[in-house]
Design goal:
CATH class: Alpha Beta
Number of strands: 5
CATH superfamily: Alpha/Beta hydrolase fold, catalytic domain
Strand order of the largest sheet: 1-2-4-3-5
Largest sheet: 5 strands, mixed
Oligomer: single chain
Strand content: 25-35%
Distance between the termini: 34 Å
Low-confidence stretches: none
Number of domains: 1
CATH architecture: 3-Layer(aba) Sandwich
Mean pLDDT: 84
Order of helices and strands: EEEHEHEH
CATH topology: Rossmann fold
Amino acid sequence: MSMEGITHRRIHTYGIWMHVAELGKLPLVLLIHGFPKLWSSWNYQMTHLAKHGYRVVAPDMRGYKDFDSPPDLASYTILHLVGDLIGLLDQLGEEKWGMTGAQKWPARLPLEAR
């Protein structure tokens, strides 16, 4: 897997820290992993999309790897996950974006965010 050029940072939003991997320039596309994956499951897609002119951001989701893991199980609802992504988008400062997900629950996030 080539991870050349991918940058990593932690973003603080809504009182928690999340890890994101980024590559490329605008327009923005979010790649959301499912269980039990991490941001790195999108490595090939990140490289491909960036080569075609997109800014690709792949976060680790709540409770995974370098994302804060709140101890209360009630902190892992769809509303919390959507809130994390809204906070991420706010911190990235982008008004226009696209999103895709892997597995079942990430597919619901764009619908819940409306």
